[in-house]
Amino acid sequence: MASMITIVYAREEPPDQWSAAVFLAGPTPRSEGVSSWRPEAIAELRARWRGDGRLVVFVPEHRHRRYDDYTGQVEWEERCLHLSDAVLFYVPREPATMPAFTTNVEWGMWHDSGRAVFGAPPEAPGNRYLLHYAAKSGVPVADDLPGTVAAALDRIGPGAPRTGGEREVPLLLWHEPTFRHWYAAQRGAGNVLVGARVVLRFGNCWALHVRVRVAAEDRVKDNEIVIGRPDISTVVLYRPGAELDGTDVVLVREFRSPGAAADGFVHELPGGSGTAGGPLRTALDEVAEETGLVLAPGRLREHGPRQVNATLSAHRAHLFSAEVTADELARLARSGPHGLAADGEITHVEVVPFGRIRRERLVDWATLGMIAEVLSPRSGPAAPDAPGRCAS
């Protein structure tokens, strides 16, 4: 599809399909004698857009400079801000003619959304506070309109075609692997994403309030959120005993804020998420980081991926296991602490018989299930391309 730009003015209905969308946020002239900065921004976008598909530009000015419905205007702006992949703030503030009071409020709502860029002429007054939070939130900043437009397009990239409810998933989530896997499963089941709204972003974690048409039940479900984070790799290190309950399992004890155990710690398997190298490499790195044990790749057995909490989170755990020697087990029991203290991670190795893990409820149900899967006499490698399926 050839590149094109569609301008959507205040109170106009957005098109049903696009590859990227940008909202032009900033002060709007209220008198005929003051020119708007937005026509120049539109011209810059026309000249610079090189994405493969339609770029939609939301302009919160009436096509004919009329503002006859305040509530309708506000609701239109809120809707289109959430539809946007980039929120371009340009603030050529002029206290007498463009004080930008509404812009200040919008900036407070969107500066840490991951979608904002900020620009203002150096001489524009009253922007010091906004610039402070731009720096604090890592928002791209420019001191002229061409630079601000360039920053917005850089944030968007080439875009991605989206239709209907897909438009409500911003590009910063659309490309997330966890979202892509979840959405592919929904589409494979014949379900339709009717709508979505980002309700949380924190680091590499996100939460999306979704409206999904459930094909098998012919209804729309809209009362849940999907939480996402990068997939994790988890490793069961064990030493077989005479019976199942006597099999020693390596746990790590770590303070994690959501934990609600009696000792205030979480007792879990070594594991975590990585950004490169794939699940196997992540598994090896996490074992070394959290226990001090360095394993050769060939020692890990793969059991496949499953969701950890399918009623809440879309991310998966890629499960691996390795049988350790008696000497390795003894060294593990004496080692530590481990982890990355600079990142708030301090881990302590615990070697615990499986029977005690069960009886004393040391781990959560998901962790207990992973251990049981590995220690099951029938457990074996799972097909790597079959999410949610364990070999049996």
Taking pLDDT < 50 over at least 5 consecutive residues as the criterion, the unreliable ranges are 383-392
The CATH topology of the largest domain comes to: Rossmann fold
Total DSSP E strands: 18
| Average of the residue pLDDT scores | 93
CATH architecture of the largest domain: 3-Layer(aba) Sandwich
Helix residue percentage: 25-40%
> Please, how many domains?
3
Order of helices and strands: EEEHEHEHEHEHEHHEEEEEEEHEEHEHH
Shape: elongated
Strand portion: 25-35%
Q: Cα-atom Rg, whole angstroms?
A: 26 Å
Q: Please report the first level of CATH classification, the CATH class of the largest domain.
A: Alpha Beta
Distance between the termini: 46 Å
Q: Helices and strands: which structural class?
A: alpha/beta
Number of helices: 11
Instruction: Characterize the largest beta sheet: strand count, sense, and whether it forms a barrel.
Output: 7 strands, mixed
Supply the key terms.
392 residues, alpha/beta, Rossmann fold, Nucleoside Triphosphate Pyrophosphohydrolase, 3 domains, 7-stranded mixed β-sheet, 6-stranded parallel β-sheet, 18 strands, 29% helix, elongated
